[in-house]
Amino acid sequence: MGLRLGLRIALLGRGAWGETLAALWSGQGHSIRSWSRRDGPLPPDLLAEAELVVAAVSMAGIEPIGLQLAGHWPDAIPLLSCSKGIDLDRLATPTQLWRRHLPPQVPLLVLSGPNLATELRRGLPAASVLSSDRADLAADLQLRLSGPSLRLYTNDDPVGTEVAGALKNVMAVAAGISDGLSLGANARASLLCRGLAEIGVVLEGLGGRCSTLYGLAGLGDLLATATSELSRNYRFGLFLAEGLEPAEAERRIGATVEGPRTARAAVGLAQRHGWSLPICAQVVRVLQGSALPREAVQALMERDLRSERQP
Length: 311
Ligand SMILES: NC(=O)C1=CN([C@@H]2O[C@H](COP(=O)(O)OP(=O)(O)OC[C@H]3O[C@@H](n4cnc5c(N)ncnc54)[C@H](O)[C@@H]3O)[C@@H](O)[C@H]2O)C=CC1
Ligand SMILES: O=C(CO)COP(=O)(O)O
Description:
Radius of gyration: 19 Å
Oligomer: single chain
Structural class: alpha/beta
Distance between the termini: 44 Å
Number of strands: 7
Bound molecules: 1,4-dihydronicotinamide adenine dinucleotide, 1,3-dihydroxyacetonephosphate
C-alpha cells in the first residue's frame, strides 16, 4: 500500500452494510469499485487495481464468492471482512471461511462493532473495531478509514472480534423475544448479562480474549443490537414472540438475519466442545418449533441454580 490517502477499494456486496460503507468511504475520498450478486457474475478484473478488498456480504455469500475468487487473488492484497455470523456447515467464522480459499499470504482483517447501518446512513456517529494479527496494517487502515461518523479502534484479536459480532445476533433474537413477551427491563438486563457470559464461553473457547468481550465488538454491539428495533435480529425475535413461524418472520424482515443460523452453529460448537450455552439452546428450540417462546423463557428460569461464574 502506498502513501496516498485515497485507497482503491474493491467492495463485495451492496446490501445495507455494503452500501453504507461505500457511501462513508467514498465520501472520505476513497475510490470504490463494487460488485453485488444482482450485477451478475463477478467481473474477472474486479480486484485487479484494488489496494483493499472489503467483503460485506451475508455469511451465505462467502463460500460461493471465495470459490470464484480462489486463484484470482492479486498477491497479498488484504481482505477486510465485515460479515457477522458463524457458518452452520463448517462451524467457522467469516475469516476462517475466507482463509480456506485465499493464499496464505493474504492479510485478513475484521470490522465489527455497534454499527446499525440505518443510523450510519443518517450521518449519526458510531465507533467500531478493526481487528487483525497484522498490527501495522490495522493501524494504517485505522488512519485511512476512520472518518467523521465512524471512529475506528484497533485490536489484535480477530477470532474474539468475530465471535462477539456473531453471537450478539443470537442474544438480540432472545432480547426481541423477551421484549415481545413484555417481560420487562429486569428480564432483558438479566438475559443480556447472562448472554454476555455465554458469548464469553465461545469467544474464549475458540481462543479469543476476554477484553474483546467487553469492547465495541462485544458489549458494545450487544447493547446496540439487542435494544434497537433497527436491528433485524431483534425484530425477528419480536415476531417470534408474536407467534410467527421463523420463515414468515424472515420473510417480513426481507433482509439478512444472521442470528438463527448462528444460534444453530453455536449449539453445534457447544456439542463439539462440551460447552453449556443455555440461551443459544433455547433460541434453537424456538426456531425448531420444539418450544414456544414462553416455554423457552420458563426453561431458562428453571435451570439448576449455579454460581454467576458458570454459564
Ligand atoms: N446492516 C447492518 O447494520 C450491518 C450488517 N452487518 C453484517 O454484514 C453482512 C451483510 O449484511 P447486510 O448488507 O445488512 O445484508 P443485506 O441483506 O442487506 O445484503 C446481503 C448482501 O449479501 C449478498 N449475498 C447474500 N447471499 C449471497 C450469495 N449466495 N452470493 C453472493 N452474495 C450474496 C447480497 O447480494 C447482498 O449484497 C451480514 O453478515 C450482517 O450481519 C454488519 C454490520 C452492520
Ligand atoms: O450488526 C449489526 C449492528 O451492529 C446489524 O444488526 P442486525 O443484522 O440485527 O440488523
